[in-house]
Amino acid sequence: MVSIDNCGLMLEPQQAMSIQDVLDWATIAEQKNYGYILRSDHLLPIWDSKDRDSAECWSSLGVIAARTKKIKFGPLVSPIGFRNPALLARMACNVNDFSHGRLLLGVGAGWYEEEYHAFGYEFPNFRVRYDQFIESLKIIKPLIEGKPVDFHGKYYSAKARCYPKMKVPLIIGGRKPRMMRPIAEYADEWNIYAPRIADLKELKTLVDKNKGDRKIQISRMGGFVIAETSDQVEKKIAKHTELYKARFEALKPDEIRRNGGLCGTVDEITSQLNDLTEAGIEKFYFQILDTEDKEMVDLLTSTLKNM
What we know:
The chain has helices at 19-31, 57-67, 85-98, 113-118, 126-143, 180-186, 197-210, 230-243, 245-248, 253-258, 266-278, 294-305, and strands at residues 7-11, 36-39, 72-75, 78-79, 105-108, 149-152, 157-160, 170-173, 189-193, 217-227, 262-265, 283-288. By secondary structure, the protein is α/β, with parallel strands linked by helices. Helix 6 (180-186) crosses helix 7 (197-210).
């Protein structure tokens, strides 16, 4: 069953966003009774012009921890390519302690080459990044569960323990078959970006095959377009096209839905969410691509509260 407390808002660094803007959105999400507020951890905007600023992810998470009371929050996801795993685990444990156990730690192998080069990090091929990611999980997982780690690998090493000893839930994002094994072994939550239901079911079979008796929640992250009428839906898609031409150019509502996107009137969105829940999704993180369109967020909120 979909309820607003198992849903969250997801902030991307696409439009200029100061730490105050991030805090304002976190406050809105908390006041509207969303369960989560999440930020992508990117060093550059991922679409269109790079000539805009967006508050650094972990700095803003510290502000959210200090200025909110109940909402859970975290990065979705922090790439280990520019976040040393042992230090990332320590950061997570401290923010989690300060917020009285409200942090979720999302981690990934990284994919956005341009941001790595812009800030002086190497961007190896996927095989190397995958191997680095597996090593990072061997360090991060015990540390965020209050256990010591003594690991020496090809890419990373750590001999450390993080305090205080509070468990931080670990989210791993992925939609490639190769990622399903580490998800099954290490994740508390598997996050998948805008899956088609057939693909979700196929990947879920791979996770279930390897997870044993471990409980792994499944969450969906992705953008959304919702409006009262079909004409209004078309207009909002046109606005997204204007903002992010490379991402939304020439797409129609039925095309967006076929590709796993949430798009439509209130009734259509409700139906899509119910279908995804039946397929195994337990949490929904709604990616806000137009931070100026609070009206659409209000409509989404009322829709979720009425489900």
